[in-house]
Design brief:
The protein is an alpha/beta fold. Helix content is about 45%, strand content about 20%. It has two domains: about 5-75, Winged helix-like DNA-binding domain superfamily/Winged helix DNA-binding domain (Arc Repressor Mutant, subunit A, Orthogonal Bundle), CATH 1.10.10; about 85-195, 3-Layer(aba) Sandwich (Rossmann fold). The strands form two sheets. A seven-stranded mixed β-sheet has the order 5-6-4-3-7-8-9, sandwiched between helices. It has a two-stranded antiparallel ribbon with strand order 1-2. The protein is globular.
């Protein structure tokens, strides 16, 4: 089924299902019911069944869900069966932390280069990958390409860099800069604002008072 027909809210829950199913696999659990999965995820069993029915169901009445099969099928829906070439723009603390996240490669996101404007950082290895100057970016993209750019620069630089990368053919943007990126419709942008998440936590704590 075309994922465009599915509610974005349902799509947003799929990575969480995938993560929980991965944990079940690691613990040797072979099958699970929607009720049991509901108890672990704090999502109603009815909601879980409705979500999965958007993609054909996956389960059998009286049996539940085969964990390995469901994990693989959700991985396919999320596009995790292919490899993505990923570059990091900005070798500051956040860029370095993201570059060292071991789970990315296990999920098929292969970090191929790290770029920064600071000449003092050029050549410094971050988890085995040397930092390259921004001047080398056009040539790198032309020669090796990139599917996803992880942007951790200041806001103004982020907008300029994203526009430049789009012109070079990059279409996936994971943006951690303190600004939303607005690119043409054939680009896919995931804006991640850590302070907004912290403010939501603050609000939740305030309601407990």
């Amino acid at each position: 089924m075309d994922s465009k027909e599915i509610s974005p809210v349902v799509i947003a829950r799929l990575p969480r299902y995938y993560r929980y199913l991965g944990e079940l696999k690691e613990n040797g659990i072979e099958r699970i019911s929607s009720k049991e999965l509901s108890g672990r995820m704090k999502v109603t069993a009815s909601q879980i069944r409705q979500d999965f029915n958007n993609f054909g169901g996956f389960g059998q009445q009286g049996y539940g869900y085969n964990v390995d099969y469901l994990y693989e099928e959700i991985g396919k829906i999320l596009g995790l069966t292919k490899k993505y070439r990923m570059i990091v723009i900005g070798a500051g603390n956040l860029g370095q932390a993201l570059a060292g996240h071991s789970a990315f490669e296990r999920r098929g996101f292969l970090l191929t280069a790290i770029f920064d404007i600071d000449p003092k950082l050029e050549g410094k290895k971050i988890h085995g990958i040397p930092v390259t100057g921004m001047g080398e970016l056009p040539g790198f993209i032309k020669k090796q390409g990139a599917d996803i750019a992880v942007i951790t620069t200041p806001s103004e630089a982020a907008r300029e860099i994203a526009s430049e990368l789009y012109q070079y053919g990059v279409r996936g943007f994971w943006n951690f800069a303190h600004t939303d990126l607005h690119l043409p419709e054939d680009a896919v942008v995931e804006n991640v604002h850590l302070t907004e998440s912290l403010m939501r936590l603050s609000y939740a704590l305030k309601t407990l008072e």
